[in-house]
Amino acid sequence: QVQLQESGPGLVKPSQTLSLTCTVSGGSITTGLVYWNWIRQPPGKGLEWIGYIAASGSTNYSPSLKSRTSISRDTSKNQFTLQLSSVTPEDTAVYYCARGSVSQMAAMVSHPTKMAGYWGQGTQVTVSS
């Protein structure tokens, strides 16, 4: 059973860089036709896909966040990391990491749902001075 767990600071100041780590157990992040995603949910809004790093190591980002987003991985720790720069209060959200298979990715990008794939429990990040 694949399990994902997000970790990182719960409070970030405006203009700083948000950094979150997802630790994966029960499966390697470098094997299979799977994609390791970051998704967020701002208060009162729906789920928003941020980007992924594939098992192959390739990355892809939401066009609206691409200029501020970087996703990387540490294969020795079976972890992948999100960095979102120049944050504003609009980046306040619950941030999730999730695994999607090839067949799930189209939906995960366009309209994410916790009903598909494996998801972490989420971590609240607040951007405030």
What does this entry look like structurally?
This protein is mainly beta. Helix content is 5%, strand content 47%. It contains one helix and eleven strands, in the order βββββββββαββ. Strand 4 and strand 5 form a beta hairpin. The protein is globular and about 40 Å long. The N and C termini lie far apart (39 Å).
Write a concise keyword list for the protein shown above.
mainly beta; 11 strands; globular; 129 residues; single chain; four-stranded antiparallel β-sheet; seven-stranded mixed β-sheet
In round numbers, the mean pLDDT is 96
Low-confidence stretches: none
Supply Rg. 14 Å
Distance between the termini: 39 Å
**Structural class by secondary-structure content:** mainly beta
Shape: globular
- SSE pattern, N- to C-terminal: EEEEEEEEEHEE
| Number of E-state strands | 11
Number of helices: 1
The amount of beta strand, in percent, is over 45%
Largest sheet: 7 strands, mixed
Helix content: under 10%
How are the SSEs ordered, and which strands pair?
Layout: E1 3-7, E2 11-12, E3 18-25, E4 34-41, E5 48-54, E6 59-61, E7 69-74, E8 79-84, E9 93-101, H1 105-110, E10 118-119, E11 123-127
Parallel strand pairs: 2-11
Antiparallel strand pairs: 1-3, 3-8, 4-5, 4-9, 5-6, 7-8, 9-10, 9-11
Short description:
Helix content is 5%, strand content 47%.
